[in-house]
Predict the 3D structure of the following.
Amino acid sequence: MTALTLIADPVARGVGRLVAAPGPIEALGWRRDDARLLVASRSGGGVIDATFADLPEFLTAGDVLVVNTSATLPAAVTTEDGLLLHVSSELPGGLRLVELRRPANRGAGSLPFTESRPGTIALPGGGSARLLAPFPAGAPARLWVAQLDLPGGLLAYLADHGRPIRYGEDARAWPLDAYQTVFASEAGSAEMASAARGFTPELVTALVARGIVFAPIVLHCGVSSPETGEAPQPERYRVSAASALLVNAARHDRRRVIAVGTTATRAIETVADEAGFVHPGEGWTELVISPQRGIRAVDGLVTGWHEPEASHLDLIDAVAGRQTLERSYAAAVKLGYRGHEFGDFHLILPDVPHRA
């Protein structure tokens, strides 16, 4: 059992920038649940420096973990002109959002490309992408509404010609398995729902043995906006009647509902009414969660560490509160936590963290 260290009242200094994790923790010979976990509460006090494997110690029998079962696609395709096409969210009518980027000068990542124009882009294997209009209308041409013509269909084509999306000058090439979570079962995300990356089969078993309930949802993640901090784009989701029932029963019994990731939060909050009652539903969500909008059905959150410009921080602020958010980031920077999709984790609870 890893020792749990209480960090007494770290000074809030705003949301700092964490050093990005260079790659998956398992590439160093560790388990995924060996990643670090900072535990904080909205009620104030210090934070706890733990590991993800310690998660059961902070949960109580009957707590519900809402998890995203979307699997990551190899959504980056090199065009015939040597650019990178990122295949993002599905839109109604069979259209897709896409983003064009240019390969980094070094490493396997990519950098912004701002010279996109309407027209048809040739892809390998006889595929093509027809750029129709910038998204949203009138915005700088980063995201485009596109019509894809891919031999064999999207999944088969990306399996043959795609690779995982990577950003930055120094990004390294990791296999697609590194971008999947233990819950991944339905392909559809352009990028990984990374807040669930710390879960292992052994940890899931330990949580179930403690009486923790899992409520699966699906939200297919679009591309992120690492340079611009834009609001989230429309994303396709599904919340089943069974999962809605699990969440509503927990709320009725005053048990905690903890979303694993901003994607799970967005899906559940999309179908929650003003009283916090969750309804089954599916479709496309355009919900933007902010401190002003607040949260209705979620009590806590498992998340990663984001860039100061990231729109995810508005959602986390809505769950945690500004003081808790700043206190946690100050502690994470001081303790050397790592950010980005392969980085460490943050557990936000409504009450003072305690060991079960």
